[in-house]
Amino acid sequence: MKIIRILALICWVSLLQCGLTVSALAFQGDTGAVAVEQAVAPRLDGTAVAYLVNQRYNNATSRCFVNSPVYDCSGLLLRTLPDGGSAGNFWQVSDTEVANGYATLIYARKDVPPSTLSNSVGFILADRPSAVGAGQPYELRCGDAPIGPALPPCVPHPTDPNAVGVSLWDVNHPALLAVQAIFYDASLPGQLAQALHYQRQYYVATGEMVPVLRAWFGAGAATSFGFDAKEQLDWGASLAEDLKNRYKDTRENCGGPNFPAFLCSGVLFRATEPSTQYDAWDPSPSSITRGGVSFAYMRADAKAYGFYAPRYSNGFIFTPYFRASAGMEQPEILCAFPYDAGTSSRAPPGGCGAQPSYPATSGPCQTLGITTAQQWYSNFKQVGEYSGGWSSKHAYNECGFSLAENYVNSAPIFYQMLLSVSMIPEFLHDVTDELIIKPWDPGIPGKLPLEAFFYVGAGLVNAQYDQQNFFSKTGKYVPIIHLTWPVNVNDNASFVFRVDEQVIGR
To answer: Which residues make beta-bridge pairs with 399?
Structure first.
């Protein structure tokens, strides 16, 4: 009976870590789906880990269980790189620690005067009952417990009164080390990259993705830890799955005639190319001059099959505006062309107007009395035979569907645009549609609803440059997604995330 109670206590402390089986994301696939692989050991999700970590930090108990040190059930054991260990794996131990027979961690609890950590990034060791339940046991060797039963003093005595000696672990088998989370000091800029580097190290070595937690350090209750799914290296796996689902979402509107489908479904993206004049996510100088930035939109009922210009092999994706975080810009979409329209030579606003070569037939569709997909297609094909690829005469002759201010009654007309895309003959498919968006102010990357960088073909290097550049200017990690175009009308686009293609955290 006593043994059963002890096991029950261990299960209660470690919650889901007793006997449950979960799967971990493998982060790549060839059909838009995200494959799974079995994890080495069960893991709680990051939100649950943050809750438990905060709970332990705020637990000011005077003893643990019967007569165990308070370290066993309350407070946190924090570890940063040992002295002289700036370049290696975060789980390495120093020669001094090997000689002493223990590794040094720092104890932190709400009612204990805080220590100054030697580094702003490190890891949190799981409490001992949870570590035992996960098959990662360790021993407490020495330390001056602030309350309750004490441990033997560490020899030599550390300078930090909150230092605790923990049994050495096998640095060649980090999966046996009870790492509960990686943490970084959120009050200091640029620390997320190092935390993601540690997360990648542990994933490569063990196949497990331990969560990264933001830490705010202060005296007493001022210290707290938080989890943000978008600050995890594997966030891109969730994003790839979301892109696949949005691509397949073919709803007519997002809740009524004033809410066009692009507000909540599909994939809104912009192709870019390297430039020394402006950042990839800023409007180009020519876009600012004409008052319109070219984007494209795709989903399963309005497929894109490629870029007509070979120079385009990467770009970025905007999150649907209905999902954008509070305070994010939502640049206005002015008009939409079912076929790449060569808008740089079109009349205002922003290139939504007529093309000089076909002034009578290329103006805004509604002003021409064109309000349905069938009417648009009849106008589109009236210039004669198709030449294949991108046909300039068809592009210049087509009309664009105007969207009203605040999108009032614009949902039906945008849906007709989507239906028009599906009517274009297959041998003209090596182009995208074209949406014109009102330019936003340059130099505000942190305020844009930018959710991913993407690449096709050989565009990975450019996407990696943009990812690194964006992080250096915002401190935000934005995943890179590999986009593969559908090969025919029966195929779908795929969205794949791969950990080894991300430059943040390397």
So the answer is: none
User: Can you say whether residue 461 is alpha, beta or left, with left for phi > 0 and alpha for psi between -120 and 50 degrees?
Assistant: alpha
**Cβ count near 72 (within 10 Å):** 17
Alpha-carbon distance of 251 to 254, in angstroms, equals: 7
Q: What does the pLDDT read at residue 88?
A: 84
Q: Which of 440, 227, 238 is nearest to 328 (CA)?
A: 440
Task: Concatenate the DSSP letters of all residues of 204-267 into one string.
Answer: HHHS--PPEEEEE--SGGG-EEEE-GGGSTTHHHHHHHHHHHHHH---SBSSSTTSBGGGTSSE
Q: What is the pLDDT of residue 86?
A: 52
CA distance 59 to 153: 24
* Other CB atoms within 10 A of residue 404 CB: 13
ω into residue 412 within 30 of 0, thus cis? Answer: no
Q: CA nearest 90: which of 188, 212, 228?
A: 212
Q: Show the tokens assigned to 113.
A: 């005067």
Q: Which residues contact 116 (CB under 8 A, 6 or more apart)?
A: none
Q: What is the pTM of this model?
A: 0.86
Q: Is the C-alpha dihedral spanning 189, 191, 192, 194 positive or negative?
A: positive
Q: According to the model, what pLDDT value does residue 27 have?
A: 37
Mean pLDDT by 10 residues, the chain (506 residues): 39 37 34 34 81 96 81 93 69 93 94 90 96 95 73 82 94 96 94 95 95 94 95 96 98 98 98 93 96 97 86 95 95 96 93 95 96 96 75 91 95 98 82 96 97 96 97 96 94 96 93
- pLDDT at residue number 20: 33
Distance of CA 480 to the CA centre of its chain: 9
Give the Cα-Cα-Cα angle 130, 132, 136 (nearest 5 degrees).
100
What is the predicted pLDDT for the residue at 383? 85
Strands in 140-143's sheet, in edge-to-edge order, are 140-143, 163-166, 103-108, 76-80, 121-125, 179-185, 212-216, 224-227
Backbone dihedral region of 43: left (phi > 0), alpha (psi from -120 to 50 degrees) or beta?
beta
Q: How far apart are CA 445 and CA 188, in angstroms?
A: 19
DSSP 396-458: HH--BEE--GGGTT-HHHHHHHHHHHHHS-GGG-SS--EEEEPPPPTT-GGGS-EEEEEE-TT
Nearest-angstrom CA–CA distance, 379 and 187? 58
For residue 384, give the 3-state DSSP assignment: coil
CA angle 346, 352, 355 (to 5 degrees): 30
